[in-house]
Write a structure and sequence with these properties.
Order of helices and strands of chain A: HHHHHHHHHHHHHHHHHHHHHHHHHEEHH
Largest sheet of chain A: 2 strands, antiparallel
Membrane topology (chain A): Multi-pass membrane protein
Protein name (chain A): Transporter
Structural class of chain A: mainly alpha
Shape of chain A: elongated
Distance between the termini of chain A: 29 Å
Helix content of chain A: 55-70%
Oligomer: heterodimer
Strand content of chain A: under 5%
Family (chain A): Belongs to the sodium:neurotransmitter symporter (SNF) (TC 2.A.22) family.
Strand order of the largest sheet of chain B: 2-3-1-4
Shape of chain B: rod-shaped
Largest sheet of chain B: 4 strands, antiparallel
Number of strands of chain B: 4
Helix content of chain B: 40-55%
Number of helices of chain B: 9
Radius of gyration of chain B: 50 Å
Order of helices and strands of chain B: HHEHHEEHHEHHH
Radius of gyration of chain A: 27 Å
GO molecular function (chain A): metal ion binding; symporter activity
Distance between the termini of chain B: 173 Å
Pfam family, one (chain A): SNF
Strand order of the largest sheet of chain A: 1-2
Chain lengths: ~625, ~260
């Protein structure tokens, strides 16, 4: 067991510490609870049979999520370093895992803060009456509305044209959209101000960013339950469809959702727990963070679906009213004699007496179920579906502002972890020159990330973001997590790890944790990884493009990725994880060459060889 | 015997009813009653003919007529009023007002607006006849321009909107969007970015000041630092400090 004092010598100065336990816990919770809890989990719940989805979700949490979380928090707290330092300590051959973690965190920070920038843009635009996405703008000569807006909806138009100014395909890059650049600069400035003094300022910021979403979700819950149609939405969401559990895709999606939701393998959690004192009960912290994360997902889906039910109801009533107006005008029936309630009877009687005239009217079929089925996840949920619902609520500006501030704080607290996974390893690698103060180094990294993220502000930026999201933010994490668990369970040794845990928490881990770390979690991760790659390989590499000249506009046009783009996708998936074998080979070569030259002194190829000690002996 | 003098302005048919003076009394009284009957019939015909004439001018799908569709319950809900003859009178008066305003004359009256084919929807057709010539209809284009000009006043007279008081064929002009000089989102952005930059500068300046104070403090109690450094070396614990004053001030030890 390494001596306690040895770790402190590895840094020249005292390691920063959390002000109190609450800040540490709030930061970890804020990192884990992110945008995915609000806009990915409810969607999965809906398409995978409502309440029945909770079963694979909770199983994945208990057998895969919690062990990984406990593992990361424990090694960070014990070894008191960022991800690169930690994996170098555990096994120099697996130092690549830390490098991979850092690279992936770097890529994720790029696109994640762009989403935060979009949220900020919508937030800035919510302070207007009427809301800009509620009506179509007039065209050039004020004779009518803009055609693109009329064919789709004002909400879609505001998102695709006035926010993204999206190009029809990926080959057309378009130009930099200055309003997005401005929003992105704001997002990075806010991230920087929270990082200025490291965890001192982060710890203060999370008091707001980690707790405010819960307040807003509760407000929305109360508001949504008083809206008409909310109960239909909730029933639709939670009605369990047990048959769906036979579909293996459900289990795969539950496992991946838990995995990505807990934000393991970023290196951020390792960094956060490295600032703890070593005698901290990380087992309790891990269980707490994991359970709160899942509970937040479930709690968030209630107001989301109540509001989606309200939106479906509103659409249904609008559809019916259109039909009612057509019938009233055609048959000169007294105004408001046909209502939503007696529409069916009127329709049947009119259809019986004048079927030809009724069929000429081309009435739309209005089915509430169809409207409820129109689900969306991701940016579609936040920026299209939810904004449309907000327009129909009285006092739209207030709800829009609350919603976007909530999304902003969710995204910002996750950005803390993303960026921490980049900064702390760089500090540990001693890449920071001594003369450079921390603030300047953080500023340089933020500026660099901002400049690189400008590609997402181009006309085709959204397409690139989708690529980053699908290819960087998925498979590399699974691979990294798999190597993490193998490294700790088999290379470091479960016995040594249990000793460390006893030192930190005061008791050895019980049989559940050991079995999970040794068998269940690696197996589950491996199966999930293979299944995920298999599914991805089977889906053709296509993307949905917004093309106003498309024949079936407003449907999105499905286009295949150009070859050079697909090559970039492959690169994005493989380059971060290629560092794992690369570093292993490099260390192997170094170690072998070291053995040759210092054979007389060093018979034991100890991976913990301290080169300084060797030099002194030679002197 | 009353003299059967026919007034000079009488229609020719009455003038031909002159009875010669030497006619027997029975003939004379017959001519009188006949004359009176004819006058009454003609008057009645004239009175009945005028609206019938106008009625033929107003027909569904008339070339110069417009159809109006009113949805009071949709617009006003509980406070909806009932559509009756008085409301129709108000409509005709408002249309006459619109025509007066458009042509800038005062010749138009309620009678110049003819309404027909009212349904319980409520919808009806109307035409406008010229005040100078009751048989001539005002062309469709002019009526449209007059309605468009006074659309707002017409709507307000009935507490309705463009959507609930429809003139089929006359499209409402789209409302001018309010274009503020500075987009509101820029104002919010300006406030936020200003606050953030102020915060960054404040934090940087305060940490800079803190460092300076720490450095000054370190220089002042550098003697204490020395002792600690010396003790550290003596105890064998290797402390990597920034200042190693062991080599700068040896006086204290050499004095021994």
């Amino acid at each position: 067991m390494p001596e306690e004092g040895m770790e402190d010598n590895k840094e020249g100065e005292e390691r920063p510490k959390w002000n109190n336990k609450a800040e540490y816990l709030l930061t970890c919770i804020g990192f884990a609870v992110g945008l995915g809890n609000v806009w990915r989990f409810p969607y999965l719940c809906q398409i995978y049979g409502g309440g029945a989805f909770l079963i694979p979700y909770l199983i994945a949490l208990v057998f895969q999520g919690l062990p990984l979380l406990y593992l990361e928090l424990a090694i960070g707290q014990r070894l008191r370093m960022g991800s690169i330092g930690v994996w170098n300590s555990i096994s120099p051959y697996l130092g690549g895992v830390g490098v991979a973690s850092m690279l992936v965190s770097f890529c994720v920070s790029l696109f994640y803060n762009t989403i935060v920038a979009w949220v900020l843009w919508y937030l800035f635009n919510s302070f207007q009456e009427p809301l800009p996405w509620s009506q179509c703008p007039l065209n050039h000569n004020n004779t009518g509305y803009v055609e693109e807006c009329v064919e789709s909806t004002p909400v879609n138009y505001f998102w695709y044209r006035q926010t993204l100014n999206i190009t029809p395909n990926m080959e057309t890059s378009g130009s930099l959209q200055w309003w997005l650049v401005v929003s992105l600069a704001t997002a990075w400035s806010i991230v920087y101000i929270c990082f200025v003094r490291g965890i001192k300022t982060i710890g203060k910021a999370v008091y707001f960013t980690a707790t405010f979403p819960y307040l807003v979700l509760t407000i929305f819950l109360v508001r949504a339950l008083t809206l008409p149609g909310s109960s239909e939405g909730l029933i639709y969401l939670f009605t369990p469809d047990w048959e769906i559990l036979k579909n293996p895709q459900v289990w795969l999606d539950a496992a991946t959702q838990i995995f990505f939701s807990l934000s393991v393998a970023f290196g951020g959690l390792i960094s956060f727990s490295s600032y703890n004192s070593q005698k901290n009960n990380c087992e309790r912290d891990a269980v707490l963070v994991g359970v709160i994360n899942s509970a937040t997902s479930i709690y968030a889906s209630i107001p989301i679906f109540a509001i989606l039910g309200f939106k479906a109801h509103t659409n249904y009533v609008t559809c019916l009213n259109g039909n009612i107006l057509a019938l009233t005008n055609e048959f000169d029936i007294s105004d408001m004699n046909i209502t939503v309630e007696n529409y069916e009877q009127w329709f049947d009687s009119l259809n019986g007496t004048h079927p030809s005239r009724v069929s000429d009217l081309k009435l739309k079929t209005c089915d509430l179920q169809t409207f409820l089925d129109q689900s969306a996840s991701g940016t579609g949920l936040a920026f299209i579906v939810f904004t449309e619902a907000v327009i129909s609520m009285p006092g739209s500006q207030v709800w829009a502002v609350l919603f976007f501030i909530m999304l902003f704080s969710l995204g910002l607290s996750s950005m803390f972890g993303n960026l921490e996974g980049v900064l702390t390893p760089l500090h540990d690698l001693k890449l920071v020159p001594k003369w450079m103060p921390n603030e300047l180094f953080t500023a340089i990294i933020c500026l660099l990330l901002f400049l690189m993220a400008l590609i997402f502000c181009l006309g085709s930026g959204n397409y690139w973001l989708e690529i980053f999201n699908s290819y960087v933010g998925s498979v590399p994490f699974l691979i990294i997590a798999f190597f993490e668990i193998i490294a700790v369970a088999y290379i470091y040794g479960i016995g040594r790890f249990s000793d460390d845990l006893e030192f930190m928490t005061g008791h050895r881990p019980n049989i559940f944790w050991k079995v999970c770390w040794l068998v269940i979690s690696p197996l589950m991760l491996f199966v999930v990884l293979v299944a995920y790659v298999a599914v991805q390989a089977q889906t053709p590499p296509t993307y949905a493009a917004w093309n106003p000249d498309y024949v079936n506009f407003p449907n999105t046009e499905v286009l295949p990725y150009p070859d050079w783009v697909f090559a970039i996708c492959v690169l994005l998936s493989s380059v971060p994880v290629i560092s794992i074998p690369l570093v292993a080979i490099y260390r192997l070569i170094c170690c072998m060459s070291g053995r040759h030259s210092k054979d007389s002194l060093h018979n034991n190829p100890n991976p913990y060889a301290n080169e300084d000690y060797v030099v002194e002996l030679l002197l | 015997m009353p003299s059967l003098t026919v007034p000079p302005g009488a229609p020719p048919i009455l003038q031909s009813l002159t009875v010669p003076p030497g006619a027997p009394p029975i003939l004379q009284s017959l001519a009188v009653t006949l004359e009176r009957m004819l006058v009454r019939i003609l008057v009645l015909l004239y009175l009945a003919g005028a609206p019938a004439l106008a009625q033929t001018l107003c027909q569904p799908n008339a070339s110069n007529g417009y159809r109006v569709r009113i949805s009071i319950k949709t617009a006003l809900g509980n406070q909806a009023y009932e559509w009756n003859e008085n409301e129709m009178f108000l409509f005709r008066a408002t249309m006459a007002f619109a025509m007066r305003r458009y042509y800038k004359t005062e010749t138009y009256n309620v009678d110049n607006i003819i309404v027909c084919n009212q349904t319980r929807r409520v919808s009806f057709w109307f035409v406008v006849i010229s005040p100078e010539n009751p048989t001539m209809l005002i062309p469709k284009a002019d009526v449209e321009k007059a309605v468009s000009m006074s659309r707002h006043r017409i709507n307000n007279a009935f507490l309705l909107t463009d959507r609930t008081l429809e003139f089929l064929g006359i499209y409402p002009t789209l409302a001018e969007p309010v274009n503020p000089d500075t987009p509101p989102w820029l104002i919010v952005f300006g406030v936020v970015i200003g606050a953030v930059f102020a915060g960054i500068i404040a934090l940087l300046v305060s940490s800079l000041l803190q460092k300076r104070r720490k450095e000054k403090g370190m220089m002042e109690d550098g003697q204490d630092e020395e002792d600690r450094q010396m003790k550290g070396v003596e105890n064998g614990i290797n402390l990597d400090g920034i200042y190693n004053r062991g080599f700068t001030d040896d006086d204290r030890f050499t004095k021994l």
